Amino acid sequence: MIAAGDTVVLTGGSAGIGQAIAARSRADGRRVINLSRRPCVVDGVENLAVDLGEAAAVAEAIARLRDLVGARGRVHLIHNAAFPIADAVTDFDARACEQAMRINVVTPAELTAGLLPLMAPGSSVIFIGSTLSEKGVPGRLTYCASKHALVGLLRATVQDLFGAGIHAVCVCPGFVDTPLLDPLRARGPEVMQQVLGMISYGRLLTPEEVADIVAFCVERPSLNGAVIHANLGQRES
Asked: Which end of the chain is more exposed for a tag (fewer CB within 10 A), N or C?
């Protein structure tokens, strides 16, 4: 049952999966505070403009969040924002890797640590991973590494919060119909057909389907520590 007064703190709610999570959370009657550079347009969402790749900006956002959230209660922290870098061991940029690692891994850890004093039993921490959290593909070196690290962050968080009454889950979507797939679409319809041919149902996930899974997870302490793959069934290569 959804408790009155629940607060969702969401990163990257301005588009795609994040926007769908914000809309579902508002429909479920939760307060939603979004952290991103661009605002979330979902009605009723409170926006906190922040560059999640800047350590000082994240520290300032944590201080502002403490004021906004106020009293300790049920807080659902959803780490959705990600930096979708394309690189390889044969084409590697250390500075770009460091930026992606900060947004994809360091910032979620900082936000969890910073908001923990406000999170009462019944709260949750949801990490949005990827199919690439547990497999590798060419041309996505840093993205694969950071999404693998997110699963490690989940598992360590579960251990550190043992007995606190706060559960954590990592939701790992496959190919989702968002602008992040635009580079693939730009390569022509034959490329998208190849992608769809890898999916058992022959279609992309919708952001709303991922949001439904997240909504389920925030209310299920029984899933504490779970890594949940949602990809409509992908062909193993």
From this structure: N
The reported pLDDT for the residue numbered 183 is 80
What are 22's two structure tokens?
């914000």
User: Which strands form 7-11's sheet, in the order they lie side by side?
Assistant: 46-49, 31-36, 7-11, 75-79, 124-128, 167-173, 227-230
CB 161 within 8 A of CB 129: no
Instruction: Estimate the crossing angle of helix 207-218 against helix 16-27, to 10 degrees.
Output: 50
Residue 188 confidence (pLDDT) above 60: yes
169-177 mean pLDDT: 95
pLDDT at 1 over 70: no
Please report the pLDDT score of residue 161 as a whole number. Answer: 98
Cα torsion at 142, 8, 157, 164 (round to 10°)? 180
Report the alpha-carbon distance of residue 53 to residue 20 in Å, rounded: 22
Q: What span, in angstroms and rounded, lies between the C-alpha atoms of 138 and 59? A: 34
Please report where in the chains the tokens 């590494």 appear, as a residue. 145
